[in-house]
Structure formats: structure tokens, C-alpha cells
Amino acid sequence: MITSGRPRAQKAVIPAAGLGTRFLPATKAIPKEMLPVVDKPAIQYVVEEAVRAGLTNLLTITGRNKVALENHFDRHWELEQALEQKGDVNRLRRVQKSQMLGEVHFVRQGEPRGLGHAVLCAQAHVGQEPFAVLLGDDLIDEGDPLLEPMLDAQQRHGGNVIALMEVPPEQIHLYGCAAVEPVDNDGDVVRVTGLVEKPAPGEAPSNLAIIGRYVLDPSIFDLLSRTQPGRGGEIQLTDALAESTRSGEVGVVGVIFKGHRYDTGDRLDYLKAMTRLAVRHREVGDEFREWLLEWVNTPEGQGTEGSAPH
Ligand code: G1P
Questions:
Q1: How many CA atoms lie within 13 A of 50 on its CB side?
Q2: CA of 236 to the centre of ligand 1 (A)
Q3: Which of 24, 242, 290, 307 is least enclosed by beta carbons within 10 angstroms?
Q4: pLDDT by residue (tens digit) across 246-276?
């Protein structure tokens, strides 16, 4: 449902400069976005999601230690040649897919000054158009559309659009949290009246958490450049969006997401994402599911026998 002549976002920004400390030591030398989920690095799922939503111009915000990201979306001539000579067409296609997804650009965030600062690094590339932001370690299940409804909502309402998801109250302090009010006749869309980044226990206005998808109005750059360091001493995107809810001119709406989302920077969520995607995998899915079903009923699967915990 598109009811206005507002321009649709064409570009996607993918902040991927974080240190990945929750996943050490795996992320000591490898960017967390490159950790494989079955047979693709996490960030490839995010790029594929953007491209499926029509966002083929992508800007990745990287930092030190992130060269592997650039290599992944670039050509690898020697590998392609070797696979071609062997006639290994399947693997050749898989390798080529990562470099044909869209137009992937890179800019480095010189200092780790927070998500808001990372988004600000995209200003020259984005210009004066609405744009999407996809956090590099948040995976949204392919079967549960989120970005398209957000792009539609941005065209209907203008302003900024954030993705919201209900979480158990005891987890809300891990997220940006939104105060909302209903919007008439617009399904899962709500008006955001206030935002707090990682609220202290008891101070959350709701249990609606911001998850890693945004469609932003370019006026956010001006707000970000005036945003003072907030939680954790970092420039927070949530704080700039909170200012936007107050300023009255460019507001914020939320799209409530009810599907599956995985934070691949979190070990438990990463394992869940891996399992769900593995059982659906075209080549290994059936066998893996069969094995899993058998194994789960064994003493080791039941946790009553087996090797010591790591
Ligand atoms: C960031 C945002 C936070 C949001 C979260 C979603 O936090 O600052 O508002 O809820 O992503 O994943 P981070 O997880 O980078 O600390």
C-alpha cells in the first residue's frame, strides 16, 4: 500500500565497525559479521535482505580489522579460476553470488564513537534522500518481511521509521526502548512518542525494543551532528531519534515486528539462528534435521551424559 509521492529509500547503510567483544576469542582476528551461519557469513544475509527489498546501493561502515568484509564482497580471481578449471560450477556460483549482490561501498569509522557516529559517517554517500540502516549482526528471518513494510511506512508517513519488537521486560535494558501510541487504520504501525537507550531497570516506558532496522530521513544527520555522547559515552542513534520525536517537524513511527530475529553477536542467538537455518538448508537441511531429532533423545542430547561443559 503506497499512498504518497514521497521518494522511496534506495540506499542501505550497514554499520559493521563494532569490536565483537561478546564473541571473543572468535572475533579477535575475524570481524563478528564474518562468522558463518551455516555456509554464509552473517553479513551476507543482511546484504541479501537489503537487495531483496530493492536497496542495491549499499554502504558498509567498517573499522580496523574489517578487511575480510571488503574481500568477501570483492572478486577472488584465483579461487574462481581454480573452481572453473575443476568444473565445480556449484561452488563457483556460490562464490560469485557474494560479489554480485549489489553495489557495495565501504567507509571507515576512524574512532569507535557509537552507532550514531557510524551512521553520521554515511552522510556524504547518502546525501539528501531517505535511507535504510541495517545493523550488521541482526538477522531477520527471510520468511518474515520487515524492511519492505518499513519502506512502505516511510513513504506513507515520512519522517523516520524504526523496527520494534516486544521483548520480556527483564531484557529491555539491553535495547533502545520506545513509548508509543496507536496510529489509526495502519496495521502494525505506531507513533513513537519517546525513546530511551538501554533504560535502567524500572525506567523503561514499555517492553518494545528497537531492533536493527531503520528507515531514516536525511535530517537525522543534522540531529546526529548535534547529539552529545550518551549511554556508554557513545553517540547514540536512539538519542538523535528521541530528539526527532520531540522536535515535532520530522517524527518517528515504529513498525512492530512479530517474526524471528537473531542477534548473531550473542552466542545463544547465534546458535539458534544456525540451527533454524541449517534445518531449512537446501543441501544439508534434511539430513541435519534427521540427526538432530535422533540426537536430542540420546542421553547426551538430554544433558544426562556426555563430555564436560566448555
Ligand atoms: C543498538 C542500538 C539499540 C538497539 C540495538 C538492536 O545497540 O543502540 O537501540 O536496540 O542495537 O540490536 P547495540 O546492540 O549495538 O548495543
A1: 31
A2: 9
A3: 307
A4: 987 789 999 999 999 998 888 998 999 999 9
Plot region of 236 (φ>0 → left; ψ -120 to 50 → alpha; else → beta) = beta
Ligand 1 is surrounded, with C-beta below 6 A, by 115, 135, 138, 175-176, 197, 209-212, 236-238, 263
Interacting residues of 139 by C-beta distance below 8 A, sequence separation 6+: 37, 42, 45, 46, 261, 262, 263, 264, 273
Q: The domain 11-265: what is its CATH number?
A: 3.90.550.10
**Would you list the domain boundaries of the chain?**
11-265, 266-298
Ligand 1 atom index nearest CA of 232:
16
Is this model's pTM higher than 0.85 or not?
Answer: yes
Give the three cell numbers for residue 305.
551424559
**Angle at which helices 147-157 and 42-52 cross, to 10°:** 50
Ligand 1 centroid to residue 300 C-alpha, Å: 35
Mutate which of 175, 245, 266 for ligand 1? The one with the most ligand atoms within 8 Å of its CB, which is 175
